[in-house]
Amino acid sequence: MPAPSLDYFNDTHHMVRESTRRFVKDCITPHVTEWEEAGTFPRALYRQAGELGLLSIGHPVTYGGTGDQDVFLKVAASEELMRCGSAGLVASLGSLDIALPPVWRMGSKALQDRIVPGVLAGNEIMALGITEPGAGSDVANLRTRAIRDGDDYIINGAKTFITSGIRADHYTVAVRTGEPGYNGISLLVIDRDTPGFSIGRNLEKMGWWASDTAELFFDQCRVPASNLLGPENSGFFTIMLNFQMERLNLSIMAYMTAQLALEQCLDYVRTRETFGKPLAKHQVIRHKLAEMATQVEVAREYTYRCAARMAAGEQVIKEISMAKNFATRASDMVTHEAVQIFGGMGYMRESLVERLYRDNRILSIGGGTHEIMNEIIAKQLGL
Fold this sequence. Notes:
single chain, Butyryl-CoA Dehydrogenase, subunit A, domain 2
């Protein structure tokens, strides 16, 4: 397959790509099937990623990070991590990228000093708690309530589908502190051992088996007001700012899922014979692969363009929503066709395309559904 455009990646990016590739080859690939079947992976992997500097990409230089301007550093590392073939593992390992930025953007210096270093080192795990049982993508109407009581907030409510929720040490949680709608939302940091906070079962999922996914419950949960991120009722803006990078990461996950499925097919059709000749010699298969390759290439290149505009400081709300939708649709098509090309073997758990097919399904749901993305795009078009 053609290498990514050199216009986007410099020598530093290539170095990060190579070190991430070695990390995946040495520390993940030999164990990934075992971890998938077990539904988890060792906590030590966070520390290994932290020691390598992978967890620090995109986070403040003050705490040993790379800063949040070099977007393609994140792209390079994310692409290589996805080559492990377990999107669930990548999602859990990267949960800090959606949970930690509100802390270093909006938290007090004391809160930052207490939390950021340990998470970037991989010694602690952080999760983001937004989705609720009855709300889904409707962030503006979340119901988990936080009421100010002296120097504390008292929280009641629940969250669900929380990536890294089972074993996180800290949670960035969206709560309602004000009026209905987006103007009444705040973000609070809640530590695992906070009284009144409990973690439910590890949710069993269609895909992303290696990712722990939890329900969270708050019953008169008392949290210090100093854990508030930014001014009260300003959380919606921070959540929306967070979503741009999350949607970029999901776009990367989508086109890399499709890329891996395509590569599996290209190898398979050269060796698998039907009706006396390799699959690659059947026109219907060749044309399927041509369409699949086109979808992957376009999804990747458009995502790169959005990343370049983000790196230039532009707001790309419409464009990154388009990128996520296009990349996830491409991944839908490519993983579906990959299983079809593999036939019965594509339905077997021993086949990577089977896992890619399952893992892919969440990508057009997480970080805002395909339908929500279309609503955002329509609003940006002035409709």
